[in-house]
Design goal:
mainly alpha
Length: 420
């Protein structure tokens, strides 16, 4: 087909799919099965990009590219969405909604600096855009810039006092400030405007969990799940509520549902694995941690968790491999150094264990456990003077946390070493 026919065909397909001008975060989710129309749009998009140089002056092109980007954003294909937003904004930089959506895409991939830049561009064009102020505040919250975030949320509320997303933002802000009762007030205000506003229900459930108001948390999260029974993070938070109440079987039910929906989130798999571990179902725990690794091979905690459960399964060699990988991904991780030191200690590879406990202590000098094992190993290596000095410092650190049993052990070992 010629270029005119191509543009008309793409516009027709976009009209069928009808992506919103502004994509809401809770509406973003991967597509399990592509419709025929979506597949056809993908083929037309390839032709469009091949013909781009010939049609780049067509006034319809920026709008087409923006709508294509919106389709990808809604489908959670963030990298592709960002590329298309950059392309369309290069042709027409005055598209406020494109700047906002690109900022949202960067927020979803945890790139708050880039998100702030995009949302700043949107506000440079439209200084009264309340939504841009809210998303800018969300990006600032991710960076820990609480005062800046608060100012931008106040600007959004000044422009639209009933804007539920701005009121939600206030709740999130006060939760970040650890002012949980104030967070509840703002979230309830958002829900008074829209009782079915799912993000506010989920946030309020998390706040009630933090406040240990478990019945209120279950009530709010049940309302969220009545709106969307397959919301993985509402399911996950419900699981956490049951963990807090020591009802691990109920918690496992909710984590199982969450990972069946959001199978590419390592954090959800880790929560499921932790429940299996607490129930002493170590092989199932390992399976869950492995799924976390499969979801994100660079997720350090997944490697650590699987390494620790491999120790419980008696497979020290595999545990060591997992922890070696974790340290390769994050060489300064204190927890990994400590865990690997324990493995070397159990394998009687004392010099290597000592190196790991030294590394752990150097990055976390306030943790007496590292010195405790360092002292044990120094005794085994017959380095008695160094061992005694380590026991003395370990004792002081245990005194700071008032660990009576460990204090007594340190004193006994110091006496046993005597004059060295």
């Amino acid at each position: 087909m010629n270029n005119e026919e191509l543009l008309e065909a793409i516009i027709a397909k976009l009209d069928q799919l009808n992506p919103a001008e502004l994509i809401e975060p809770e509406g973003i989710q991967p597509v399990a099965i592509m419709t025929r129309e979506r597949k056809q749009l993908g083929e037309l998009e390839k032709e469009l990009l091949q013909a781009l140089e010939l049609i780049k002056l067509d006034e319809r092109l920026p709008g087409i590219l923006t709508r294509l980007a919106n389709v990808y954003l809604k489908e959670a294909v963030f990298g592709r969405a960002i590329v298309l937003y950059e392309l369309t904004l290069g042709l027409d930089s005055k598209q406020v909604s494109a700047w906002i959506n690109m900022g949202m895409a960067y927020l979803m991939v945890s790139s708050p600096i880039e998100a702030i830049s995009c949302l700043g561009s949107a506000l440079a064009i439209d200084q009264r855009n309340a939504l841009a102020y809210v998303y800018l505040a969300m990006a600032q919250l991710k960076q820990g810039l609480l005062e800046e975030a608060n100012k931008n949320l106040d600007r959004a509320i000044y422009l639209d006092s009933n804007m539920t997303r701005a009121l939600l933002g206030k709740g999130m802000l006060f939760r970040a400030r650890k002012e949980l009762d104030v967070a509840v007030t703002w979230l309830r205000r958002a829900l008074s405007m829209d009782p079915k506003f799912l993000p506010a229900l989920m946030e309020l459930g998390s706040v009630y969990l933090a406040l240990k108001k478990y019945e209120e948390a279950i009530d709010v999260l049940s309302k969220a799940l009545a709106i969307d029974s397959e919301q993985p993070y509402a399911l996950s938070t419900m699981g956490e509520v049951y963990v807090a109440q020591h009802d691990l079987e109920s918690a496992l039910y909710f984590f199982d549902k969450a990972v069946s929906i959001k199978f590419d989130d390592p954090e959800l798999w880790i929560k499921k694995g932790d429940i299996h571990k607490a129930l002493k179902s170590y092989q199932q725990a390992s399976n869950a941690y492995q799924k976390a690794i499969n979801a994100d091979p660079e997720h350090v905690e997944s490697w650590i968790k699987n390494g620790s459960v491999m120790l419980l399964l008696g497979d020290e060699g595999t545990a060591l491999e997992y922890l070696n990988t974790a340290l390769a991904l994050n060489p300064n991780n204190t927890e990994v150094s400590h865990q690997r030191g324990l493995i070397y200690y159990s394998l009687e590879r004392y010099e290597e264990a000592l190196d790991d406990f030294d590394a752990a202590f150097s990055t976390d000098p306030g943790n007496p456990e590292n010195l405790y094992y360092r002292a044990l190993i120094l005794e085994l290596l017959d380095r008695r003077a160094e061992a005694k000095r380590s026991w003395v410092v370990a004792q002081r650190l245990y005194e700071e946390v008032d660990d009576i049993i460990k204090i007594a052990e340190c004193k006994a070992r110091i006496r046993r070493l005597g004059q060295v």
